[in-house]
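[job 4471] stage=fold_predict status=RUNNING
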Amino acid sequence: MGELGHVLVLAGGLSYEREVSLRSGRRVSEVLRTTGIDVETRDTDSSLVPSVLADPPDAVFVTLHGGAGEDGAIRSVLELLNIPYVGAGPDACRVAFDKPTAKAVVRSVDIQTPASVTLPKETFHDLGASVVLGRIIDRLGLPLFVKPSRGGSALGASIVRTAEELPAAMVGCFAYGDTALIEQYVEGVEVAVSVVDLGDGPIALPAVEIVPDEGVYDYAARYTAGHTEFFAPARLSEAAAAACATMAVTAHRALGLRDLSRTDLIVDADDRPHFLEVNVAPGMTETSLFPMAVESAGRDLGTLCRRLLESASTR
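[job 4471] inference complete, writing structure tokens
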């Protein structure tokens, strides 16, 4: 493992998830300092590159959510600067960040994922929204789940249980992105499985079960303490828990991810997991799922983050 004299945590950015990213960055900085590391936290503004060039960190921990933090852009810049960082490389990030593309990749390795349609806003404008929406319901049925093809924190996402709800769901989706992913909604237990790789290959941490008070794991339910009940480990059968772990690790490998990831799944009434999406920069806030999984596994978050940085520093 490499020696860590100076570590940079990137947080903030200009995406819709800026505030969550700042909270993640503060949490990671705090837990790293408990392990004796000299940590600097910075935003992604015009002073970043000159600062990094003047005083190169031994490694960077990226806690940027959405946009440049997960689409590979910032990681491409770090590679141009020859600065090692925790997490997947730019190419893998671009694939994972685009939900329809990620679904296609995991489907190619026999991972089950809900049937879906991906359409840009222009399609509805050019062809007529009512006709296209009607065909979507004919093909996929109801209920549906609508979300932007890129982005996170459930921004612009909603469940559609009737045909009358679909137009409003599309409008809400397009407020956060130009392309919508409309997929069959699978009823079941919602879980998140975090994956870490400390050098011996990726392993799954215990699944975290998500039970939002209002029935929908939206932005408020994710980041407001007390709005969601979590169970870590998830209340799954042994077979379902093992299947979720295998699916998360398989997705991590198939997408070419590195160091850490979080896969979101639904486990149906027959104990079968269904892949929803993957996150290359899992949230690290007090209500985030990755830290819960780390604690459930009996690990210390600061020590784990330090080991990931040490591993990255040798690349």
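[job 4471] summary: The longest helix spans residues 238-254.
[job 4471] exit 0
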